[in-house]
Amino acid sequence: MIIKIIKILSLLLFTSLVFADQGETKTGLSEIRSEYKQKNYGKALTIADKYLKKYPNDPDVKLFVGLSLYKLNQNNKAENVFKEILQKHPKYNDVRYGLINTYLKQKKYKDAELQLEELKKYSSNKDNKDNKDNKDNIEKYSNKINSAKNASKNINKKPFEVKKNKSTHINYEDKLYRKAGLYYEQGDFQKSIETLMKIKDYKSNSKYRKLYDELNKITSYRFTPHFSLAIGNYTKHYMERGENWLFDHAILIYSNSHSSYELGINHARRYGDDEVQQFIRLNPIKNDYVSAYVGFRKSPEAILYPNRTYEYGALLNFGDVINGIFEGQFDRIRKTFLRRYVVGFEKYFGNYYFQFKPIYFVPNKGSSSILYISQLIKYYSADDYLGISIGTGKSPDLADLDSIDFYNIYDDYILVYGQKALTDKFLVKIGVGYNKQIFPSILNNMERHFQTGLLSFKYRFV
């Protein structure tokens, strides 16, 4: 009798736990669905992550993870989530629709067509109660794929070409709207919203406003006034001596859509010396045509940093061709000085960015020199990127400020770096590199080699 009672109680306890779990999962799914419908995709992902830790195999929660990632233009991640669900639930049509949309956004039209064939295969099943709905959706997605393929062909020819005939007329605002839409599809939200804001009535026109509201939800912190704090370290390991040269920084940044301001501290430790440099940089002009800045740096002893540094620069927009970079810097080093000039350019190619920046060094008495710096960056989103910077040429020995009037060194380096947004507010940047320096014959062509490392963090107060 006692054994029967125990069995009954155990069954009741098990049943109550199962239903409790189901209730908790349904509550979580309801929360996620609610945030998704309100276009709070980041919040939907946060809630989903919490529930997936307890219920890692819930396909419904994972579906909204994939859909949220898709809406945030994190297409590779969304694709992987949808594929993972389909491995265990191949007949989950909503997931397959999501995967097709993800493929279309990445212009993987063949993959999208293969998924459509899979949908047709399952819809041909006579026992499928949703047969009619599936057939309607198959027709809808078939048309969607064909439209995307045709649009891609037209875009690849000339993205914003307008035929000059009586029957077709696209005004300037619509051209900008199409261009902003392409940037949005590529995940370049900043370029998208900057292009959209060139339209005079982008807020009052319902068509333009819809894209603006979507962009503003995703990247509101970039276009509203906010503070950021950046803290980091750059280390150079002097291989011949086994020493570490350390360079630290802490910067408080205020930004809005048309200006930015920085206040910070640099700290260097080298050859047993320590020195602090205070600085301020003002970037009061940022618009579609020019971005200009001025800055001032101060250090008391001029051992590791100059006594005073005055800097200025401007980025000029020459349309869709290139942007021109013009910079200057004056370093006061006790009784002498060093001037630096830059005339370079930058260019965006879709999700790629290229910059060429030669630095022309002119000391007070010694011979001038040029260091050529190039960098290439691939953006995966507005915050996530991977880059490489390469420098080659000649420069003063900036590790020995007393020598700048007497000789130059051959200076070559490479640095590979990347940035990742861990959340909407917190970003981390890391990098590794190598630096080789060769001294002139008067110093017996001595060589100096460094292994370099970069680690920095940035937090946005929004």
Helix content: 25-40%
CATH class assignment of the largest domain: Mainly Beta
Give the count of structural domains: 3
Counting helices, strands and paired strands, the structural category is alpha+beta
Radius of gyration based on Cα positions = 29 Å
The largest sheet has its strands arranged as: 1-2-3-4-5-6-7-8-9-10-11-12-13-14
Order of helices and strands: HHHHHHHHHHEEEEEEEEEEEEEE
Features:
Serine Threonine Protein Phosphatase 5, Tetratricopeptide repeat; 37% helix; 3 domains; Porin; 462 residues; alpha+beta; 14-stranded antiparallel barrel
Task: Provide structural commentary.
- The protein is elongated and about 85 Å long.
- It has 10 helices and 14 strands.
- Strand 1 and strand 2 form a beta hairpin.
- The protein has a 14-stranded antiparallel beta barrel with strand order 1-2-3-4-5-6-7-8-9-10-11-12-13-14.
- Helix 1 packs antiparallel against helix 2 and helix 5 runs antiparallel to helix 6.
Give the gist of this structure:
With 462 residues, the protein is an alpha+beta fold.
Architecture blueprint of SSEs:
Layout: H1 2-37, H2 41-54, H3 59-71, H4 75-88, H5 93-105, H6 109-123, H7 131-157, H8 172-185, H9 189-196, H10 206-223, E1 226-238, E2 243-255, E3 260-270, E4 273-286, E5 290-298, E6 308-317, E7 323-333, E8 336-349, E9 352-363, E10 369-379, E11 385-396, E12 408-421, E13 426-438, E14 447-461
Antiparallel strand pairs: 1-2, 1-14, 2-3, 3-4, 4-5, 5-6, 6-7, 7-8, 8-9, 9-10, 10-11, 11-12, 12-13, 13-14
Helix pairs in contact: 1-2, 1-3, 2-3, 3-4, 3-5, 4-5, 5-6, 5-7, 6-7, 8-9, 9-10
